[in-house]
From TrEMBL:
It holds the Pfam family TP_methylase. NCBIfam families: 16S rRNA (cytidine(1402)-2'-O)-methyltransferase. Catalyzes the 2'-O-methylation of the ribose of cytidine 1402 (C1402) in 16S rRNA. One of its GO terms (molecular function) is rRNA (cytosine-2'-O-)-methyltransferase activity. It is an enzyme of class 2 (transferase). Residues 232-276 form the RsmI HTH domain. GO terms for cellular component: cytoplasm. This is Ribosomal RNA small subunit methyltransferase I. The keyword S-adenosyl-L-methionine applies.
Amino acid sequence: MGILYVVATPIGNLQDITLRALDTLKAVDAIAAEDTRHTSGLLSHFGISKKLIAVHEHNEHQSAEKLLMQLSAGESIALVTDAGTPGISDPGAVVVDLVRKAGVRVVPVPGVSAVIAALSASGIVQNGFLFHGFLPASGAARRKVLEALRTQTVTLVIYEAPHRIVDSVADMCAVLGRERRVTFARELTKTFETIYSCALSDAVAWLEADTNQQRGEFVLLIEAAAIKDAEEMPEETVRVLKLLLADLPLKQAVKLATEITHEKKNVLYDFALQLKQQSE
């Protein structure tokens, strides 16, 4: 059996590629790429010449079968996308799943991450984050997803494309709340990199004031929802949750409390964690 290497590539600045990624790309028998033309440019920059195989969202299932045949014959293959890590809001997961199920070894070769780069430069100190990736393209579906994310008590990390950025931010303001802060991380590691924070109520105006700020790829970091404390939680909800926690595991207590009180499950879960911590 060969080995499938899942190789992260730069999201902009080519100097961000790792030494291990370069060694891997030089050593493999072939490279499976989201866009062979784009990857050819990357390889040429570093003086690497390899056989390229197209693996994109429209042919991933068929390509996965062909790659598995090559891996089974003993070839080693590097899987890359245009930028970042395969399978993370990019093609690649189908290939990885198929070859792992076939018993082929999969080796990650990690590198630059737009999510981590954005968080590291944002100054956000809240604990934890939820990476959602891209929101749906249609307004109704997008607002439905945002409603499901509305009460998350961790920073929300969302990708967005330039042609949808204004509409998406307007929906975020309407669904998540005007006072929530958003950090735009635009064109990370590239020439026109921008990192800017404001309230969601001011975000559309900022984007429309300079159309250049609507260009490129976006990582959006949205402030976490506030965690309800005992003073904000209805007295009856607190009583029910405390009674259930006294006799049941946390997850089961929260599930039953959600059915009884009709509070949001994730809100009750966070509050139950606080109660548990206070009692320990």
